[in-house]
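Journal club side-thread
Mid-discussion, someone asked how the predicted structure for our own chain would compare to the paper's figures. Pasting it here so we can look after the session.
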Amino acid sequence: MGVDHNRRAVEIARARGLAAFIPEEFHVSHWAKACRFDALLFSHVLEHMSAAEATLLVRAYLHLLRAGGRVVVVTPQEAGSDSTHVEYMDFDKVEAVLRETELEVERRYSFPLPRLAGAVFKYNEFVTLARKPAS
């Protein structure tokens, strides 16, 4: 199940038989129920907005995550940055966003190569894992 602001991406996903929505459609769909999901993935999303906007976005979807559920955030490293990125979201900035939403950061790592490769390898990414408190 996916949510994307890009209508064309949603159309392609649907043509492939996947459940996909633009945000406005999602929020009125049967999927948008409190505590419905075990995990939320924000992949190559947060760097397209300010940290304050990223915090609001994550917070807007947290009610859908069950207690103890996991949030995964993937953002590009230096070589993967482009002109559409508003704010560089490294480990510390992503962690600050997640902590602001009261998520507990459990792990962060560089993927697929060690952090040093992020300066030259376009596809190296920051991956941050957090958990929604059980209570």
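Post-session note: The beta strands are 2-3, 20-21, 37-43, 65-76, 104-111, 125-131.
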